[in-house]
């Protein structure tokens, strides 16, 4: 499962980076009553068997869409987002090695969960969707942490 | 942008030891003038997906000396591109870019400093504080034929840690190495140090 894949991940550093920008990013989110990640039936219903695949898909969602769609002018915020983005890139490589050992199988449930998130994203104008997704990074990080308690030991 | 009339800084290189990374370059010399430098970086993410984006370094945009502590900028275990330019008033040089991107997994890990003390019969170790990314693998044993080696993982340096209760008259030995989870590497072991209750540290 995920524990074997992300064992060397320094989640604490990523969480610190997010905490540094959370207020500034969430303040720019103009659609407060809409959510992209945290619809309760999406992430929290993921079964252990699907954790690795959903993590891989969500990392790709952020790396391929969210970070690219967000344009940031503040150097301080840019540094934090860069830190998170590059850490996600490293996590992707770690998961890639897992995939090669066939430990990251994608079932239909995992694919459906990912599609819901992409659909939520597509409902919004792209900059708003990116800002909202950045603001919900704590949901993703908490979910990864919960499904991978071994990292923070 | 200012016209590039200043020579660009040369000989960029990174020295990295124990996860402290310093970028250095040859200074640009203009007699009786003070040159400032600006350092910028790109992680692999920016290189792959947003190559037009260069991020001003945390501490050196601008700076005066021909070096820059980039430790707070290198926060992931991926290759980072780095560039520097010189500035004199409104005059600006071209950018000079580090020839090979830097990855923190190439940092030099040195054996940690340690201080072995006796508190009565108790063997106590205090390790060098190298920062939150460092854990310590401590091996200790009683010096006698066939002695079993014990191991303890210490999460943080800088605080005394009790290893074991010693037997009077027996020498007890310790060696330690660091482990950095973020890059999945450990240092070499330190020198072994032995102590004997009622005696001073013994040379090996």
Automatic annotation (TrEMBL), chain A:
Family: Belongs to the IL-10 family.
Name of the protein this chain belongs to: Interleukin family protein
Keyword Mitochondrion among record annotations: no
Localization annotation: Secreted
Chief localisation class: secreted
Presence of the UniProt keyword Glycosyltransferase in the record: no
PANTHER family xref list: INTERLEUKIN-19 (PTHR48482:SF3), INTERLEUKIN-19-RELATED (PTHR48482)
């Amino acid at each position: 499962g995920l524990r074997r894949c992300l064992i060397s991940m320094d989640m604490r550093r990523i969480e610190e980076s997010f905490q540094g920008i959370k207020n500034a990013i969430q303040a720019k989110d103009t659609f407060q009553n809409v959510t992209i990640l945290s619809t309760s039936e999406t992430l929290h219903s993921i079964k252990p068997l699907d954790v690795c695949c959903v993590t891989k898909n969500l990392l790709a969602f952020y790396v391929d869409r969210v970070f690219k769609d967000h344009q940031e002018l503040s150097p301080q915020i840019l540094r934090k987002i860069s830190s998170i983005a590059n850490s996600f890139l490293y996590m992707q490589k770690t998961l890639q090695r897992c995939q090669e050992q066939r430990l990251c199988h994608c079932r239909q449930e995992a694919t459906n969960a990912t599609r819901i998130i992409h659909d939520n994203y597509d409902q919004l104008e792209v900059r708003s969707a990116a800002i909202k997704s950045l603001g919900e990074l704590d949901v993703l990080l908490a979910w990864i942490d919960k499904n991978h308690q071994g990292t923070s030991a | 942008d200012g016209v590039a009339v200043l020579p660009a800084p040369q000989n960029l290189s990174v020295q990295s030891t124990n996860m402290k990374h310093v970028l250095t370059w040859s200074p640009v010399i203009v007699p009786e003038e003070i040159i400032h430098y600006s350092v910028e970086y790109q992680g692999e993410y920016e290189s792959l997906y947003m190559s037009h984006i260069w991020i001003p370094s945390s501490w050196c945009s601008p700076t005066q000396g021909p070096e820059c502590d980039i430790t707070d900028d290198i926060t992931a275990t991926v290759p980072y591109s780095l560039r520097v330019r010189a500035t004199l008033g409104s005059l600006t040089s071209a950018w000079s870019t580090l020839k090979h991107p830097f990855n923190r997994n190439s940092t030099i890990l040195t054996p940690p400093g340690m201080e072995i003390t006796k508190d009565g019969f108790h063997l106590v170790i205090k390790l060098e504080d190298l920062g939150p990314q460092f854990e310590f693998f401590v091996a200790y044993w009683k010096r006698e034929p066939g002695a079993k080696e014990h191991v303890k993982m210490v999460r943080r340096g800088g605080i005394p840690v009790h290893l074991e209760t010693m037997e009077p008259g027996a020498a007890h030995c310790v060696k330690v190495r660091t482990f950095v989870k973020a890059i999945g590497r450990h240092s070499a072991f330190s020198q072994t140090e032995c102590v004997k209750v009622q005696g001073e540290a013994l040379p090996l």
